[in-house]
Amino acid sequence: MSPSIENQNNGDAVRSYTDDKNHTSTESTYTTSNGAPYPHPYESQRAGDNGPLLLQDFHLIDLLSHFDRERIPERVVHAKGSGAHGFYRTTNTLEDLSIADMFKEGKECPITVRFSTVGGEKGSHDCARDPRGFSVKFRTEEGNWDHVANNTPVFFLRDPAKFPHFIHTQKRVPNTNLTHADDSTFFWDYFAQNPESIHQVLILMGDRGIPDGYRFMHGYSGHTMKLINKEGKWVYAQIHMKSKQGTKFLTQEESTTKGPDYSQKDLFYAIEKGEYPGWDLSVQTMSPEQAEEVWEKQGINVFDLTHVWPQGQFPLRKVGEFFLNENVKNYFAEIEQIAFSPSHLVPGIEPSADPVLQSRLFSYADTHRHRIGANYQQLPVNQPRVPYRMANFQRDGPMAFYSQGERPNYLSSVDPIKFQPRSVDLNKTHGHFVGKAVTFLSEIRKEDFNAPRALWEKVFTEDARERWVENASGHMANIMHNKEDILKRMMSIFREVSEDLASRMEKATGVKGYDGISGLSFNGTHNGMAKDSSKRTANEADLTSVGNNGGPTKGSHQAVLSGNGIKA
Ligand code: HEM
């Protein structure tokens, strides 16, 4: 009997992603890319026994031309990485603070984590002295929340336009093509001109600069986020991921004894052996009023990524935990093509006004469109796994896999889609920003040295301080140009942190610095500590600095908290 023409869904005969991912060689038949069986992959068609090749040989052309296109651009930063799949579960509900579905009691969701180093290329060494990236894609029932974090609670900068400049100084030198391991001039020149980096430099040159693999490190949002609850009330939050394995580090010497893929190997085989690494997810929270108070009284700016929130004052509250229990089947498909973005948020979690975070909200999805393509969210590893049928009016573009069928590609009155109303009034939870546009560049102030000083004087042990001096002075030995000037400035910045740090480094490098930074001007930041006003402006140019250094001054949340001036 011939099949009925009406019941044939000819266009739907596609292979499933899971079937493809899990297939074995013995159940597979060799074919060209259009599916035609082919008897041997090494054959080519020639004109005669020793003549040139034939254009009709699709098998060979198919093979070579696909090979020619096997690479996608590596990530411009964080190119070297490792990852795995796992799951998250909420152990202590956060419903009083956030409407995020994933934070409800007992909620679970699948996750994929990618760890990375920052500066090196895709083939660089896992044991580089560098911060580590720690990104988690939480596939929640309200869409994907990407927590794109590092293993340090602070970062090198707080003015976003510095990021590409800073990263260039951590990468290869244009003419010599050397990394900072062989020529550290640009590396230290940047830090000598941007003293707000000092806290992160202390971490980088210290024990936490080379974690012993990825399982033994914590992760930190660094940025301040906002959590919104069902009453539309919100708090600022810092999000922490605490390793259940504890932390471990490698010394500089130990790192040289490890293979280039040390961390990849460690993570993969730990999971293979069933030693599933886990982390606790915790939050520190601060009310808008407290944010004003810590700025006014302690000079701690919640919008400043170089500052930390003291844990004694703002204790950690555990929300959940996650484990990595599944290795990838194919690194390229599941880790190289994964695309994290701080702008991939879900209701109940919002960005703060931190300018570096705001820039990142743009930068990641932008780079994904370049690195992977406009339809990067359609790739299986990036796809949301929501219980409702997601729909929008994005159409076509390169490699559009999901087409959204015949549904109208505009907001149709003929065939309308469903909308879910907002559960909180965003006009109330968003900030209330009024003022003239300003050009902003931050200035260095004495408070910027408080946390680095506590780290040096109270947290580091004596052994750790000795290792620090050895690591930093060893790295400084490779400054090839302007060494004296760069080191004098660095010693002066160290002196603002601690006389002990400065004098040890002066002894180790043989270069004496100034009394502090009050007599210096910097090309990267205004010097709020300069004695002479001519030294105060960055690059000695006539730039205006903003009086509050970008911090939330008293009363700055008043309008949004009282509802004043808000159009409902
Ligand atoms: C203005 C500041 C920043 C900009 C413009 C920026 C930009 C980028 C870009 C373009 C990538 C490559 C993404 C990709 O190709 O998939 C990246 C990766 C990454 N960034 Fe940033 N970044 C900034 C600051 C930060 C900060 C402060 C953190 C941590 C708190 C961070 C954490 C990461 C991580 C973890 C990755 C790797 C993501 C992955 O595993 O795929 N970045 N960043």
What overall form do the CA principal axes indicate? globular
How many extended strands? 12
Uncertain spans, ≥5 residues at pLDDT below 50? 564-568
The description of the largest β-sheet is: 10 strands, antiparallel
Tell me the CATH superfamily of the domain at 81-155 and 211-378.
Answer: Catalase core domain
- By helix and strand content, what is the structural category? alpha+beta
Classify the helix fraction into a percent range: 25-40%
Q: What proportion strand?
A: 5-15%
Give the C-level CATH assignment of the domain at 81-155 and 211-378.
Mainly Beta
User: How many angstroms separate the termini?
Assistant: 66 Å
CATH fold annotation of the domain at 81-155 and 211-378: Catalase HpII,  Chain A, domain 1
- How are helices and strands ordered from N to C? HHEEEEHHHEEEHHEHEHEHHEHHHHEH
Radius of gyration: 27 Å
Bound molecules: protoporphyrin IX containing FE
The quaternary structure here is single chain
Structure description:
Among the domains are: 17-68, Irregular (Cytochrome C Oxidase, Chain J); 81-155 and 211-378, Catalase HpII,  Chain A, domain 1. It is α+β, with helices and mostly antiparallel strands. Helix 13 (462-476) packs across helix 15 (499-509). The N and C termini lie far apart (66 Å). Residues 564-568 have low confidence and may be disordered. Strands 1, 2, 3, 4, 5, 6, 7, 8, 9 and 10 form a 10-stranded antiparallel β-sheet that branches. The chain has a two-stranded parallel sheet with strand order 11-12. The longest helix is centred in the middle third of the chain and has 17 residues, at 355-371. Helices cover 27% and strands 14% of the residues. The chain is globular and about 85 Å long. Protoporphyrin IX containing FE is lined by residues 75-78, 81, 114, 116, 133, 135, 148-150, 155, 160, 163, 222, 305, 339-340, 356, 359-360, 363-364, 367-368, 371.
